[in-house]
Amino acid sequence: MPVTTERLPTYFISHGGGPWRYMMAQSNGMYDRLAQSLRDMPRQLGERPKAVLVISAHWEEREFTVMAAERPPMVYDYAGFPEHTYHVQYMAPGLPALAEQARQLIQSAGFSARLDAQRGFDHGSFAPLVVMYPLADVPVVQLSLRAGYDPAEHLAVGRALAPLREQGVLIVGSGLSYDNTRRMGPSAAGPSMQFDDWLQQTLITTEPHQREQRLIDWQDAPAARVPHPQEDHLLPLMVAVGAAGHDETVCVYHEEGFFGGVTVSSFRFGQEGGV
């Protein structure tokens, strides 16, 4: 598969719960639609990216930090799952040169940034990536969130990273459009749908130059603190949107009744196949 040289779209994906990809037999089809949307992403791109830069909701540091390992290890950042899920391996290579370039771009935007040569793949990365690229033949670099969860900062970092799209780097914000494990099932139906409706309006029908301000003010959205008691799973969206510029938005995954009542979505910013 040839490596793309066109400007790639960016994505915000709802990455599912824990090591779900390794428990499909026990999930009774719960993840089938999410898995299908992830498998379709390489088709949408048309060509294999040079690398994937993942902003994971499961990695937070005091300053923006970029994974720089050549052979990233695994981080089993979950509890209460079957024993075999603590031995799975996703063997995609890292790309230290990309990590350094990302660090420099972030610093050029006025933010402190550092490299971490020890950090490995957490499930915000490997669970969706093993569906997208099961052969683990695309290099992957992770970027952390910054403590404090300032949406404007994460949007700005996305804007700083946007030039990587021209170099064949796929930027993926990996979080969840609804992340409240204490309120799932039927009681989540109303608030998750209200917030998802606001998200669809913000990302799809609002003019691109206005959507960033709406995202900065996301706590004003209907039921906002029910889907996101803590906004770590929403912040990867900010980086993906910042990197997208004024590109159009398409909802690439939408499901109502997930986990018995939750509405969840994923989005692409930019056209299929690049532009």
Number of strands: 8
Mean pLDDT: 91
Shape: globular
Spatial sequence of strands, sheet with the most strands: 5-2-6-1-8-7
Terminus-to-terminus distance: 19 Å
Largest sheet: 6 strands, mixed
Strand content: 15-25%
Number of helices: 7
Q: Could you estimate the helical fraction of the residues in percent?
A: 25-40%
Helix and strand succession?
EHEEHEHEHEHHHEE
Provide the structure class. alpha/beta
In the predicted model, the low-confidence regions spanning at least 5 consecutive residues are none
- C-alpha Rg (nearest Å): 17 Å
Report what the structure shows:
It is a single chain. This protein is α/β, with parallel strands linked by helices. The protein is built from 7 helices and 8 strands; from the N terminus they run E-H-E-E-H-E-H-E-H-E-H-H-H-E-E. It has helices at 32-45, 96-108, 123-132, 151-161, 189-205, 208-216, 235-244; strands spanning 10-14, 51-61, 64-67, 113-116, 140-146, 169-175, 249-258, 262-269. The chain has a 6-stranded mixed β-sheet with strand order 5-2-6-1-8-7, sandwiched between helices. Helix 2 (96-108) links the parallel strand 3 and strand 4. Helix 1 (32-45) crosses helix 3 (123-132) and helix 4 (151-161) crosses helix 7. The radius of gyration is 17 Å and the shape is globular. The chain starts with 9 loop residues before the first strand and ends in a 6-residue tail after the last strand.
